[in-house]
Automatic annotation (TrEMBL):
Keyword annotations of the record: Bacterial flagellum, Cell projection, Cilium, Flagellum
Major localisation: other
Assembly and binders: The basal body constitutes a major portion of the flagellar organelle and consists of a number of rings mounted on a central rod. In Gram-negative bacteria, at least four rings, L, P, S and M are present, whereas Gram-positive bacteria lack the L and P rings. The rod consists of about 26 subunits of FlgG in the distal portion, and FlgB, FlgC and FlgF build up the proximal portion of the rod with about 6 subunits each.
Annotated family: Belongs to the flagella basal body rod proteins family.
Name recorded for this polypeptide: Flagellar basal body rod protein FlgB
Domain of life of the source: Bacteria
Length: 116
């Protein structure tokens, strides 16, 4: 039985959430960099791409989009720190939830293999 069937969509979701965490962290780190353009991942598109095997090990491809700011900055930076911090926190909670589900699934499989 392949890992994809054992873990369903959750393995791919964990991969995309991890990549999104990196993109959001980069936005936050560059909040004061003139001309920096904030980006984010279209989660649905990235998940579909990873599930189809298109982006396995290659990143998020076409799902990475530039963020449109609600208020433009004079220096050309499009990072809105509050929005980025909120997105990062939400993604972290979703990442942890997915990881907890996978840990539970692995524990169940391990107990089944041991005959418990």
């Amino acid at each position: 039985m392949a890992a994809e069937t054992l873990f369903g969509v959750h393995g791919a979701a964990l991969e995309v959430r991890a990549q999104r965490m990196g993109v959001l962290a980069s936005n936050i780190a560059n909040a004061s960099t003139p001309g920096f353009k904030a980006r984010d991942i279209d989660f649905k598109a990235a998940l579909a791409s990873v599930e189809d095997g298109q982006d396995r090990g290659q990143g998020i491809g076409d799902a990475l989009k530039y963020r449109v700011p609600t208020q433009t900055s004079l220096d050309g930076n499009t990072v809105e720190l509050n929005q980025e911090q909120t997105a990062f926190a939400e993604n972290a909670v979703q990442y942890q939830t997915t990881l907890s589900f996978l840990n539970g699934r692995i524990s169940t499989i391990t107990r089944a293999l041991k005959g418990e």
